[in-house]
Amino acid sequence: MVNNKFPDNFLWGGATAAYQCEGAWDEDGKGFAITDLLTAGTRRNPRKLTLEVDPGVYYPAKKGIDHYHRYKEDIKLFAEMGFKVYRMSVSWARIYPNGDDEKPNQKGLDFYRDVFKECHKYGIEPLVSIMHHDTPVALAIKQDGWLSKKTIDAYVKYAKTLFTEYKGLVRYWITFNEINMTMNYFGDVYGAGILSNGTRIIDINNVSDDAMSKEKQNKRFAALHNQFLASALAVKAGHEIDPNNQIGCMIASDAHYPYSCNPVNILAAQNSMRKLWYCGDVQVRGEYSYFTKRYLEEKGVTLNVTEEDKKILKEGKVDFYSLSYYTSGTDCLDQEVDTDSGNFNLGAANPYLKKSDWGWAFDPDGLRWVLNEIYGRYNVPIFIAENGLGAIDEVSDDGKIHDDYRIHYLREHTKAMKQAIDDGVDLFGYTWWGPIDLVSASTGEMKKRYGFIYVDLDNEGKGTLQRVRKDSFYYYKKLIETNGSCVFEED
């Protein structure tokens, strides 16, 4: 008889990020992070970074969804759904306003302690991202963010503060969210805080990789190397401070396929997957992969890795691999094809897959495939830290939100996860992105909604902020109650 339930201790929950939900961007001693000063945007109108606050510009992070003041209400709703885990991030600038202050901001420490205690009140395990793209602005201006070794020292001090302050309250940690985004076309600012040449206004995601100069490519990979070192040092410190800590990496893990069986497309897809392995090999295996030399040479990158660096990386290997998965990409080099893959360029449009409102392919089988690829390469426990569907939700005449499309997405990806577990993958948890509507990281919109909980707020920051349960709220509640088996009972 086939067992359709997930493992008994499987961690079901949801995921958010501080800058997308908290708001209160300058309250209680908080400093500015890069992500706070990103303007709103749309799929066709990229977000901009403005390092001086412009009173005539709308910054979504200023208000977020006011989670800072409403976290008790929100966590109570998460508990109603039955969450076992809540993946969230701490804002570095709320703890150290300038990134490298002598002492932490006590009000910031107190806020997150209260959040963690509220989670435990309902039996919810916090899983905390130490860095979720939000480099403090002061570090970006003073020392070009992650291009400086001084930023490593500031990050490790910050991480040690979290490990010490929240010992016994938090045992699951992620060092960097989607660390491989530093390699990609908005990684210069979003991932690394690189603000060279006195730049004050930047379009964060409208420059293709191909258009990048060798100078920029070198800066990207130098910054990423410093993040690897910071992660490794944090892992080592976290284990020393509390041996019960489980500390993972987090890598954006889209599946990539060849458009056809033409060998040039197969090799192109293999090369795309190396963007995952480049980061995963360093953080899980503790060393750069064999393909790194040629990979960097083709990008015109020269990377200085010292013997001391190699020692640090080897001693700071993570305990588990976490990933985000939303969609898949298709590589085609032998013909002209439609490449409209939404606000991220993931290659050729796959003719076998349907798309979301934002052009992302619906591909649950890709999740099963990528989970098997990751586990086969690393053989460490895996956690799905982000998976979800951004869509346009409408409030019906009955005052409810009937989001059957989101339920369908969740159901099919849950089936894919169970298939991967049956394949032998050690998958121990899943957090939906995001369980409550929040500001979209890629476009800065509220219109692009992911939540099981509707938040009355529009793209201009107008609305009551009222929370409303969608149909998907009740479906996820049932899914957790049945430990996943309900998705199979419907077939």
UniProtKB/TrEMBL annotation:
Signal peptide region: none
Which terms are listed as keywords in the entry? Glycosidase, Hydrolase
One GO cellular component assignment for this chain's record is:
cytosol
What is one process in the GO biological process aspect for this record? carbohydrate catabolic process
Q: Which PROSITE patterns match?
A: GLYCOSYL_HYDROL_F1_2
Highest taxon of source = Bacteria
Q: Which Pfam families match?
A: Glyco_hydro_1 (PF00232)
Gene Ontology terms, MF aspect: beta-glucosidase activity
What PANTHER family does this protein map onto?
A: 6-PHOSPHO-BETA-GLUCOSIDASE ASCB-RELATED, GLYCOSYL HYDROLASE
* Record family assignment: Belongs to the glycosyl hydrolase 1 family.
Q: What is this protein called?
A: 6-phospho-beta-glucosidase
Species for this entry: Faecalitalea cylindroides
